[in-house]
From TrEMBL:
Domain called Type I restriction modification DNA specificity: residue spans: 11-168
Pfam family name, one: Methylase_S
Superkingdom field: Bacteria
Gene3D superfamilies reported in the protein's UniProt record: DNA methylase specificity domains
Database matches in InterPro entries: Restrct_endonuc_typeI_TRD, Restrct_endonuc_typeI_TRD_sf, Type-I_RS_S_subunit
Family to which this protein belongs: Belongs to the type-I restriction system S methylase family.
Organism: Desulfonatronospira thiodismutans ASO3-1
Protein name, entry field: Type I restriction modification DNA specificity domain-containing protein
GO BP annotations listed: DNA restriction-modification system
Length: 203
């Protein structure tokens, strides 16, 4: 938790991040192994999971100002369609000529006072998700528009407190992952025991 709540400002997302669209929508994104651009699609992302750049497809992009679509470390990709929303922050290194699919909005931090990982944490938080659901509707076809995203109110504490929040959250994710692994291992051991009982009873 922030050490001094009085130092936490409430800002609109558009005040701290520039929001742009992904690639222009096309009829179909044709994969081309020799293409001049890598593309991150929604299937390549999930909240709290790093993008695996080795799995990205390549396409042949023929539009103008191709460089304007290229992503860099610290950019945040936001997906808000089909009744779901999540974001992911891009870690270094980001391969050259990598862009976001049309279904994403790209957030780029405007200054060095806002940490990308903190903003990504808040976008995935329950509070932000409730806002998206209320503003964009709760149906399966819900779409979070640029206007809705821009006007999300973000509590912005001092940078050291942003770092603390991110660190605490990622420690929790690590603990949760280890707990799931232990439970999975325990389940397998229990199943072995049950199979042994059933096998012995059937002889």
């Amino acid at each position: 938790m922030p050490s001094d709540t009085e130092q936490t400002r409430l800002v609109k997302l558009k005040e701290v991040a520039k929001i742009t669209a992904g690639l222009p929508a096309r009829k179909k994104m044709e994969e081309d192994p020799q293409g001049n651009m890598r593309v991150i699609r929604p299937k390549d992302t999930a909240a709290w999971r790093r993008v695996n750049h080795d799995e990205l497809i390549r396409i042949r992009f023929k539009g103008r100002k191709i460089e304007s679509y290229f992503l860099k470390p610290g950019d945040i990709l936001f997906f808000g369609r089909s009744g779901q929303s999540h974001s992911v922050v891009l870690e270094s290194p980001v391969p050259e000529n990598t862009a976001a699919a049309p279904s994403f909005m790209v957030l780029r931090i405007k200054d060095d006072k806002t940490l990308p990982h903190y903003l990504n944490w808040y976008l995935n938080s329950d509070r932000a998700q409730k806002y998206f659901m209320a503003e964009a509707g709760g149906s399966f076809q819900r779409v979070v528009t640029k206007s809705v995203l821009e006007n999300l109110e973000v509590p912005l504490p001092e940078q050291n407190d942003q770092e603390r929040i991110v660190r605490i959250w990622y420690l929790w994710l690590k603990e949760e992952r280890l707990t799931r692994q232990r439970l999975k291992h325990r389940e397998e051991m229990v199943q072995v025991g049950i199979d042994g009982i059933l096998g012995g009873g059937m002889k």
